[in-house]
């Protein structure tokens, strides 16, 4: 696909980074109030949850440990984020999947450009979100692809170089979905629902099941990291996000009352964040640029089926806890966000019922 449908020609940030040594182009400069001001930033340790402690028993008779369910629940209520360790994915797989993507982003630009995406569905190699002309741009490139449902998965839109990409991403996707299902069950219990209730709410009877997609972020070195952002403030659109961060450099921040907190990510952990009806927080986050080290991250989104009507579950709604947003399908919501680009949580404000 060509990039004609973007409002302006797409220039990969990586190519700017390779050619500019001192000054970034104007379009990447944030207004002063949105720049990463050091006195408003703190390093923060978010709760760490050991998933080894969540369940006992064999495949058939699984028992969930109430203390760990409570830890998850408290983390979601108070922070909206936690780090998951002992999540069941092998560290070897985590390293391998980061490695294939690092190799991809280091291919010559002509190779990567073969996968250039369009704002129609964003699948492929891209450098911007939103189609607003002259919008301020983020200092990062990305690759976006669908893993589930199978009807949306299209291997021809995945990189064929390095050759192991498809198998590795398939393997990673399967394992990540398994872990997301475990988190969903814990969240379901923590909300006082039956263990499978939350998972079921993501599916319908068609058999095509939940959605999941992968956004691989690549943040090249930036000569003026104080003026720009790797990724502007946003909250993720799906049900659950697993972020696999770079082991070599930090950059992810979330909004706090008094500014921004930089998450100190543990190697081989997932940073998990959730979307909700206000019981749990879906926290606004952003990514800082870095002057000396490039950064890669994999955001795995576990989503409700795309044409399922999304609204809070009847079990969770009461006169004291009314629905906060109007119901819409996940697809409608996604189209809405894609038109407008990352705008913090203002999307959600305008959808309040
Ligand atoms: C995202 C995201 C954070 C990061 O892709 O939605 O928030 O650290 N990424 O790259
Ligand atoms: Ni995000």
From TrEMBL:
Residues 209-304 form the Fe2OG dioxygenase domain. This is Fe2OG dioxygenase domain-containing protein. Belongs to the iron/ascorbate-dependent oxidoreductase family. It holds the Pfam family 2OG-FeII_Oxy. It comes from the Eukaryota. PROSITE patterns: FE2OG_OXY (PS51471). One of its GO terms (molecular function) is metal ion binding. It comes from Zostera marina (Eelgrass). InterPro entries: DIOX_N, IPNS-like_FE2OG_OXY, IPNS-like_sf, Oxoglu/Fe-dep_dioxygenase_dom, Plant_2OG-oxidoreductases. Keywords: Iron, Metal-binding, Oxidoreductase. PANTHER family: OXOGLUTARATE/IRON-DEPENDENT DIOXYGENASE (PTHR47991).
């Amino acid at each position: 696909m060509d990039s004609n449908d973007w409002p302006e020609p797409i220039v990969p940030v990586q190519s700017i980074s390779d050619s500019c040594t001192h000054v970034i182009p104007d379009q990447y400069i944030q207004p002063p109030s949105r720049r990463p001001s050091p006195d408003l930033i703190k390093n923060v340790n978010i709760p760490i949850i050991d998933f080894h402690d969540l369940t006992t028993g064999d495949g058939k008779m699984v028992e969930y440990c109430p203390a760990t369910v409570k830890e998850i629940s408290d983390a979601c209520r108070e922070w909206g984020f936690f780090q998951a360790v002992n999540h069941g994915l092998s560290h070897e797989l985590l390293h391998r999947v980061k490695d294939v993507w690092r190799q991809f982003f280091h291919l010559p630009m002509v190779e990567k450009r073969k996968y250039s995406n369009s704002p129609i569905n964003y699948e492929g190699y891209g450098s911007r979100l939103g189609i607003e002309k002259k919008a301020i741009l983020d200092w990062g490139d990305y690759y976006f692809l669908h893993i589930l449902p199978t009807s949306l998965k299209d291997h021809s839109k995945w990189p064929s170089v390095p050759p192991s990409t498809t198998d590795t991403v398939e393997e990673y996707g399967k394992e990540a979905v398994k872990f997301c299902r475990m988190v969903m069950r814990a969240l379901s219990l923590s909300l006082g629902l039956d263990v499978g209730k939350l998972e079921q709410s993501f599916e319908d009877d068609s058999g095509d099941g939940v959605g999941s997609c992968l956004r691989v972020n690549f943040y090249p070195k930036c000569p003026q990291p104080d003026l720009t952002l790797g990724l502007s403030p946003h909250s993720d659109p799906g049900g659950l996000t697993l972020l696999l961060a770079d082991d070599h450099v930090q950059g992810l921040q979330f909004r706090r009352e008094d500014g921004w907190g930089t998450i100190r990510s543990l190697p081989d952990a997932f940073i998990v964040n959730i979307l909700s009806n206000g019981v749990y927080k879906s926290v606004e986050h952003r990514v800082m640029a870095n002057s000396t080290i490039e950064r890669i991250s994999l955001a795995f989104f576990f989503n409700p089926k795309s044409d399922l009507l999304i609204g809070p579950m009847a079990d969770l709604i009461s006169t004291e806890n009314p629905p906060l947003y109007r119901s819409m399908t996940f697809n409608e919501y996604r189209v809405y966000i894609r038109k407008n680009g990352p705008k913090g949580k203002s999307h959600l404000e305008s959808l309040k019922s």
